[in-house]
Amino acid sequence: PHVCLPGSSLVNGYQPNPCLPRKLVRPMGCYSAGSYCGYNESIFNSNEKETMQFLNDRLACYLEKVRFLEQENADLEYKIQEWYEGQTPYVYTDLNCYYKMIEELQQQISCAKADNARLCLDVDNLKVASDDYAIKYEYEHGLCQSAEADVKSLRRILDDLTLCKADLETELEALTEELLCLRKNHEKEATPLRRQLGDHINVELDAAPSCDLNKVLDEIRYQYETLVDNNQHEVKDWYHTQMEELNKEVISSGEQLQGCQNEIIQLKHTVQALEIDLQTQHNLNTALENTLAETETHYSQQLSELQCLISDVEVQLAELQSDIEHQYGEYKVLLDAKCQLDCEISVYHRLLDVEDCRLPNYPGNPGCTTSISSAVGKQVWSEPIQSPVIPSDCTPSIPAAEPNPIQPCCNPCAPTSLLTPGCALVTQISTQIC
Known about the structure:
The protein has helices at 48-86, 96-200, 213-358, 421-433, and strands at residues 2-3, 20-21, 369-373, 379-384. The protein has 434 residues and is mainly α. It has a domain at 157-193. Mean pLDDT is 72; it is low at 1-45 and 362-423. InterPro entries: IF_rod_dom, Keratin_I.
C-alpha cells in the first residue's frame, strides 16, 4: 500500500496516483509557504530499491500532474476560443461628430449664458436709471410746486402792496380835496371880513404900520403847501424805498433760492451718480461672488475626483504590493521546490552510479564500499564505489537584497536542526551511501 503526497499543490479535483510506500512514511510537518510538505530526516531507510521506487513514483506524480495541467490548459484555451467565437463582433462607432456637436452646443450655451448675464446687467442698469429718473421727476416736481407757492406768495404780497398804494393815493386825494375845501372856506370867510373891515372901519392911527394879513395868510398857505408837498414827497420816497428794498430782498432771496436749488440739484445728481455706481459695484460684486462660488464648486468637484482617483490608485498600489508579496512568496516556494528537485536529481544520479557500481565490470573506487543489508540486518555483499559528490549549485538563487535569504540546502556538514527537510533527506542518503 502507498499514500499520496499532500494535495495542497494540486489542482482542485485532481487526485494523483499512489506514490509513497506506506512503511516509509513517518511523522512530517509542512513548512510555511511550501506547495507540498517536507519530510523528516529519517523518512528513508537504507534500502536503495525502495528509495528508487519512491523517487520514481514522485517523478510519475510530477509527470502526471504536468500532463493533467496541460490538458486543463488545452480545455481552457478551447473554452476561451469558443467563448470568443460565440461573442458578437464589436462595431466601433465614430463619435467624433457627436463630440463636435456637443462642443458646439456647449459653446452656444456658454454664449447664451454670457448674453443672459449681460442682459440681466442691462436690465438692472435700466432699473437703476428708471429709479433715478423717477427720483429726478419727484425732485423737479417738488421744485416746481415750491416755485409756484413762492410765486403765489409774491403775488399776494404784490396785491397787498398795490392795495396799500391805492389806499395811500386815496388818502392823498382826500387830503388834497380837504386842502382845497379849506382854502375855499378860508376865502369865503376872509372875503366878507375884508369887506366889513373895509366898509365900516376907517381908523387912522399914528402908529407902526400893521402887518399885511394877506401876506401872512399867503405865508401860512405857503408853509402848509410846503409841508404837504414835503409830506407827499416823504411818503412817496418812503414808499419807493420800501418797494425797492422789498424788490431787492425778493431778488436776493430768489437768487439765493436759485443757488440753493442749483446746489441741491447738483448734490442730488452726485448722490444719484454715486448710487448708480454703488448699485453697479454691488451687481459686479454679486457676479464675482457667483463666479467665485461656481469656481470653488468646480475645483472642489475636481479635487474630490482627484481624491477618489488617488484613493483608487492607492488601493491598486496596495493590491499590487500584496500581489507582489504573494508572488514573491510563491517565487521562494518555487525556488525551494527547484532546489529540492535538483537535490533529488543529484540523488538519482548517485543512485544510478550505485547501480552501475553493482555491475560486475564496473571499475569501482577501493576507497569506498556500499553494502546491501537484508531484512535481518546481515551484510550480503559489498563492493567499492565512488564517493558521491554533493552538487555545489544546490542553493536557491535568491537575490542578495532580500532580508532573509535562503541558506544553502546541500551542505552535509551543517547541523541537522538547521537543514530543510529536502536537504536533510539528501544528507541522510549521502551518509548512508558513504
